[in-house]
Amino acid sequence: MTIRLIVAPLRGITDQPFRRAIARHFPGFSEAVAPFINPQKEGGATKKLAPLADLLPEGNQDLSVTPQLLDNHRQSFVDMARRLEDLGYQRINWNLGCPAPMVTRKGRGAAMLEKPEAISALLDFALPRLRCRLSLKMRLGMRDRGEILAVMPRLHDYPLTELIIHPRLGRQMFRGAPDLDGFTEALAASRQPVVYNGDILNSDDFRRLHQRFPQVAGWMIGRGAVARPVIAMEIVAGAPPDLKPRLVAFHDELFAAYQEKLCGPGHLLGKMKQLWLYFIASFPGQEKSLKAIVRAKDLTRYHEATRAVFDNPDNK
After folding, report:
1. What span, in angstroms and rounded, lies between the C-alpha atoms of 287 and 302?
2. Which residues have CB under 8 Å from 275's CB, separation 6+?
3. Which of 54, 49, 42, 52 is nearest to 18 (CA)?
4. Residue 112: inside a domain, yes or no?
5. Three-class SS of residue 141?
């Protein structure tokens, strides 16, 4: 049985260097959805490539990547989608799940689930104007899980490739347990293939969910992939015997990529510390070591703190 595993879009983390490194060192993921582009912020009708730098084809050969748009304006959505088509992308995802207040206050992301007619209006405008295929990433609703059930009938007749559903409400952010009963209802109401997304942190989580929802079309993993990039290997083939060298090589490749890409040690340290807030979970029992990493004021102290984690004899 082929298990379809997808790297979830985490803004500021699962960018091109991360996607490349996880594919090279921890095979098992077959594809990724890239963190969202906001066409209204970036100027969908312009020809600048800055917002698309993370998606240039030459840097995205290791995993099959689907760009994601965060928008509630139909023309800017189409303008940006066409730019992505010009880069060769044949699949695009529309973000209807982002719970961040700065997004939902503007009626985007999960807030759109409160307005089914607005979703239909954008799809009616965009789909006839695009060559690419479109999927949606959704939550169960913004404030009530009945919202997704009101949206579902409107989606039946659109040629959507799939629905990626995170079983929480927008107002929950990432708090509380996933609402698996709500996901069950949404799964039954959908006529499109459904991908599950939410709180797959280890292979046991996957097995439990896979047993309950064997009919889903794929499994999207976000925080679990950043915390434990080995997770896809564990699900597909079992844990590798040489985990520690892989983790070190993964970290060092990311560090080198960001060092080349970012401007100055301050930006580099900020980026790597953000990763370590999750990545420390790959080193059980060393959670206290995260303090030294986060407090590092320069690269010398950062390297001392990270090497102390890597060189700990308790790591296998």
Report:
1. 16
2. 13, 18, 226, 254
3. 54
4. yes
5. strand
Q: Which domain holds residue 264?
A: 243-310
pLDDT in tens, 300-314: 999 999 999 999 877
Helices assigned H by DSSP within 115-222: 116-126, 146-155, 180-189, 203-212
Complete edge-to-edge strand list for the sheet that includes strand 68-69:
64-66, 31-33, 5-7, 218-221, 194-197, 163-169, 133-141, 91-96, 68-69
Answer whether 0.90 is exceeded by the pTM.
yes
Query: Would you give the DSSP letter of residue 142?
Result: S
Q: Could you give the angle at which helices 299-310 and 243-261 cross, rounded to 10 degrees?
A: 170
d(CA 282, CA 227): 6
Segment (H or E) for 300: helix 299-310
Look at residue 316 and tell me if it is in a domain: no
Nearest residue to 119 (alpha-carbon basis) of 107, 130, 133, 104:
107
The CATH number covering residue 190 comes to: 3.20.20.70
Give the tens place of pLDDT for each residue, 225-266. 999 999 999 999 888 888 999 999 999 999 999 999 999 999
